[in-house]
Amino acid sequence: MARFAFYPSFLAALFDEKHAIKAGGDTLKARLISTALDPTDEEWADLSADELATSGGYTAGGVTCSVTSATTANGVFTVVIASPSWTGSGAGFTFRSLVLFNDSAPNDELIGGIDFGRSIPIAASENTKTLNYTSFDEVNGLIIFGVDAVE
User: Fold this and answer.
1) Is residue 108 part of a domain?
2) What residues pair up with 97 in beta bridges, in sequence order?
């Protein structure tokens, strides 16, 4: 199964204070695109032309993904983000990748995404999360930074 991967520019943007990723912080959005992820992309404008059009249960502009918790314990910072989902209707839709970005950041900086390596068809009444195509780890967290804690 394909896994969520971070864009190389994400950490730099995080340390440049372009992200306030916490419960009640920045607005994070997920969108579906028809192409592979490109690690040289840094902001939404770099791949916006690849977003699916509104059709078959997908609405261009994507969905907001809320941060359900952001905690620090034993030197590990963990952020849990609610999984996005779309349900097909009519003829459905087809996508290849999911992209998560910060809609509150100055240039809609990219965070990461999932590239499935092939086109994924979603038929009427099928749900991307139920089929496990757009599920984030809502138990252990999507963003995890671990460091040695001062003892």
Assistant:
1) yes
2) 33, 115
Into how many domains does the chain fold?
A: 1
Q: Is residue 151 part of a domain?
A: no
Distance CA 139, CA 80 (A): 7
Task: Count CB-CB contacts under 10 A for residue 132.
Answer: 11
Distance between CA atoms of 49 and 81, rounded to whole angstroms?
A: 25
Residue 125 lies in a domain: yes
Q: What is the pTM of this model?
A: 0.87
Flag whether 123 is in a domain. Answer: yes
Q: Identify the domain containing residue 65 by its residue range.
A: 5-146
pLDDT per residue as tens digits for the range 88-140? 999 999 999 999 999 988 899 999 999 999 999 999 999 999 999 999 988 88
Average pLDDT over residues 50-77: 91
Q: What is the DSSP string of 18-57?
A: ----STTSSPEEEEEESS---TT--BGGGTGGGBPPSBTT
Cα gap 90→125, rounded to integer Å? 9
